[in-house]
Specification:
The chain contains 22 helices and no strands. The chain is mostly helical.
Length: 495
């Protein structure tokens, strides 16, 4: 009887220790994920800033007067600078670390918004947007790497949602504040947002993988212990990280030219094709110029209120995408996404066509808002997250890092192209022609999905690689759910 009681008490203590370890584990990883995701809120706010700010710059009493050409540069400088920042971010996260690289964006973000708030000419605004864009590019690369190296697979689906959630919160905050604040006060608010992020970043560790890559094993184990909880046994995981780092050092990685070899070209082109149709759907034109579009539509609903509604839909759509992406299959969601975006854009173009022809569209003043809402939902359930998800699935393991870098840079280049030329498209083709063009591209995207994009749901990464490259042997294992990867880029491009 005494022995039984002893065993029972011992079992209870073990269970309590396990539960305590799990609790600490979750708390530590939530803190780390939430902290780096605060950077996403800054990115979201910076991405959406031009939508309410540009109309305000030409309002009565404003010290600035922005021409249409200057406005297009203000809107498009951020993705152009982000392209450069993304290229610079790769060497930075390897040389100074993931945490330090992300932390280093905080002060420049503040400087960029202060520069805009104090602007006495358009050049100062452009300089501020360029600095912010450079930081956005670094963050878009650094955040996924940090989260991928610190969050355990068991909770990656939940915590991987945080960057997109907070990023969309930043967009929504910008839209709401933009209704009541002019462009200068809105920039001051933007300068305050990075402060909590800077403070919290001091509380979390660098990733164990980076420490090990620099032969700082003691610091690596200490960081891993912090992330998993003080009562967690990290011996096996730490050993696996060390082993993976040793294998990675001995494995010769292919250069950029080999990406276009016959073996690797197919998965790379599929990934870049998805990025192309994601951006040429016009999503960033919608985000960056929302207020301007509603103003030109003559909507019966206040244009700033419309942007707030669009921001709320954008925020809530994050959860819709998360609930569907691992259940219905990639291609079905891409079909629905392409069709929905095409229909809404063509409808929006038809509305502008009737309006420009002199027809009375006052009774249809609700139509632009309805079209935008369904467009955002359509983008969110498919072409928003899935190109990033499939980038992690279809790119072969040996080229995944290099190819993902190239695909990401291509995405930013397309973002710049769309945002820079949108005002020109409106001037040359009119709003109706511009939206019909985007709608037609979405239909082409549907054709691309039907004939070129493979279904990857439920397939192991080995099977996917073997099907796309024709090489690779080994046992087939069930693919781990990767929906969180789709939410790691906290930008409008991945709403």
């Amino acid at each position: 009887m005494v022995l039984l009681r002893t065993d029972t008490h011992r079992h209870i203590r073990v269970v309590r220790q396990e539960n305590q370890a799990k609790s600490t584990l979750n708390a530590s990883q939530v803190l780390a994920s939430l902290t780096v995701s605060l950077c996403s809120m800054v990115v979201g706010f910076a991405s959406a800033y031009t939508s309410p700010a540009l109309p305000s710059m030409n309002s009565p009493g404003s010290p600035l007067s922005v021409s249409e050409e200057e406005g297009s540069w203000i809107g498009s400088l951020m993705p152009l600078a982000a392209l450069i920042g993304g290229m610079a971010g790769g060497p930075l996260i390897e040389s100074i670390g993931r945490k330090t690289t992300i932390l280093a964006t905080g002060i420049p973000f503040i400087i960029s918004f202060i520069l805009i708030a104090m602007a006495v000419n358009v050049q100062m605004v452009m300089a501020g947007r360029a600095i912010a864009g450079f930081c956005v590019g670094i963050a878009s690369l650094g955040l996924p790497v940090y989260l991928g190296e610190t969050v355990q697979p068991q909770v990656r689906g939940t915590l991987g949602l945080l960057p997109t959630t907070l990023g969309n919160s930043g967009i929504l905050l910008c839209f709401i504040a933009g209704k009541y604040l002019n462009w200068q006060m809105l920039a001051i608010l933007g300068a305050c947002i990075p402060i909590p992020f800077l403070v919290c970043m001091l509380l979390i560790p660098e990733t164990p993988q980076w420490y090990i890559s620099r032969n700082k094993n003691k610091k690596a184990k200490k960081a891993l212990q912090w992330l998993r909880g003080k009562n967690a046994d990290v011996t096996q995981e730490f050993s696996e990280i060390e082993k993976a780092n040793h294998v990675g050092k001995n494995e010769e990685m292919p250069g950029y030219l080999s990406l276009f070899s016959k073996m690797y070209s197919k998965p790379l082109l599929i990934s870049m094709g998805l990025m192309l149709f994601q951006q040429l759907s016009g999503i960033n034109a919608v985000i960056f110029y929302t207020v301007k579009i509603f103003k030109e539509a003559g909507s019966t609903i206040d244009e700033n209120l419309c942007t707030i509604i669009v921001g709320i839909v954008n925020f809530l759509s994050t959860f819709i995408a998360t609930g569907l992406i691992d259940k219905l299959g990639r291609k079905i969601l891409l079909y629905a996404s392409s069709a929905t975006m095409a229909v809404t854009l063509i409808t929006l173009g038809t509305f502008f066509n009737y309006k420009n022809s002199g027809a009375d569209v006052s009774q249809y003043g609700w139509l632009p808002l309805a079209s935008f809402v369904f467009f955002i939902i359509g983008f969110a359930i498919g072409f928003g997250p899935i190109p990033w998800l499939m980038m992690g699935e279809i790119l072969p393991a040996k080229i995944r890092g290099t190819a993902a870098s190239l695909a990401t840079a291509f995405n930013w280049a397309c973002t710049f192209l769309v945002t820079k030329t949108f005002s020109d498209l409106l001037r040359i083709f009119g709003a109706d022609g511009a939206f019909w063009l985007f709608g037609g591209i979405c239909l082409l995207g549907l054709v691309f999905i039907i004939f070129c994009v493979p279904e990857t749901q439920g397939k192991s990464l080995e099977d996917i690689e073997r099907n796309l490259t024709g090489v690779g042997k080994g046992p087939v294992r069930q693919v781990r759910r990767m929906s969180s990867i789709a939410h790691l880029k906290p930008l409008p491009m991945a709403i």
